[in-house]
Amino acid sequence: MTNLxxxxxxxxxxxxxxxxxxxxxxxxxxxTRSTKIKRRHFEIALKLTRKYFHKSxxxxxxxxxxxxxxxxxxxFNNVVGIEYTQxxxxxxxxxxxxxxxxxxxxxxxxDKSFNEIKHELxxxxxxxxxxxEVLEHVGxxxxxMYEDKCTFLxxxxxxxxxxxxxxxxxxxxxxxxxxxxxxxxxxxxxGNKKEILSLPVSGLIKCVLSLGARRHSEKTLSL
Length: 223
Description:
The protein is an alpha/beta fold. 39% of the residues lie in helices and 12% in strands. It has a five-stranded parallel beta sheet with strand order 3-2-1-4-5, covered by helices on one side. The two termini are 35 Å apart.
C-alpha cells in the first residue's frame, strides 16, 4: 500500500541542529526505523481525510517546524500552519520556503487569541483542523486540564466553517508509560504539578490517575 505521508526535507535550521539530528522534524520523522513508526499518526490522519483531498483548506495547529506541512501541501488547496513557539514558527517559514510549498502560510500564535487568528485568516473557509500530538500539552494547571482542553477545542473550532472537522491525535495516556510520565512531571514541577506531593497518598494516586482517565469520561464534545 502506498504511503500518503510525504517526509519533510532534511533542513538544518541552526548550526547545532536538534538532538544530534538536523532538525526537530528530522529527529522525529526522518528516515530511521523508529521515526517511520512515529509517522503513523500522520498516515492515519491523511487516510481519514482522503475524501477531502484537493478540495479543502486546512489548518495544522502546533505545526512545530513543519513535519506535516509537505503532506498537507500536496493534498489540500490551502494550508495554514499555526505554531506557538516563535523559534519553531520561524523554522517552519524557512521550511516552507526551501521546499517551495507555495500554498502554505505560517502564523505564530504566541500572543494571539483565536479571534485574532480568525481575523488574520481573512475570508478563506477552512474545512479541517489537524491537532497532531498537541492536545496533551494544553492546560494551565492539572486541576483544570480537562476543562482547559474543552475550551481550547471550542475556541479552535471557530476557525472552521459550519461543516468543518477536527482530526486529533494524542499519545497513549494510560498504563505504565503514562504513569512514569506523570511522576516525572510532578518531580520536575511541569504544569505546576509539584504541589500534588503535599496531598495524602490516596489523593496523590487519584490525581495521577485522573490525568489520563478523564479523557474517557466523555466520548464526544459539542462544539
